[in-house]
Amino acid sequence: MFAKPIIDVLIGVKTLELNNSITNKLMQLGYEGFGETGVKGRLYFRKRQEHAYNLAVVIWNGEQWVNNILIRNYLRDNPHVAKQYRERKLNAINKGYTTLLSYSDEKAEYVSNLLEQAKKSSG
């Protein structure tokens, strides 16, 4: 599956109310915090140094967790769909949607449809 040269990490927690200790530790490690950034139920952190990382912090087994896992599994099971998704992401980048919000907005409808397909496929 195509991916940007960024490592995406999904972290499941009991509560999104991270204490200052955790947030401060992430900041010490070079991460920037962006809050929910347009996705309710997800806290977003990123690190851009030698390697690039995105951290999505969500409720373990909550809606965001389940949806991300459903899409991941669906793409793994359907290489032709993964290829289409790859092309969609490349097109978004080539059109200049390179900031987090613009890139996410550009592919939001596609990802929503992808999630519906994944839900139907999983039974």
From TrEMBL:
Pfam families: GrpB. Transmembrane segments: none annotated. InterPro entries: GrpB/CoaE, NT_sf. It comes from the Bacteria. This is GrpB family protein.
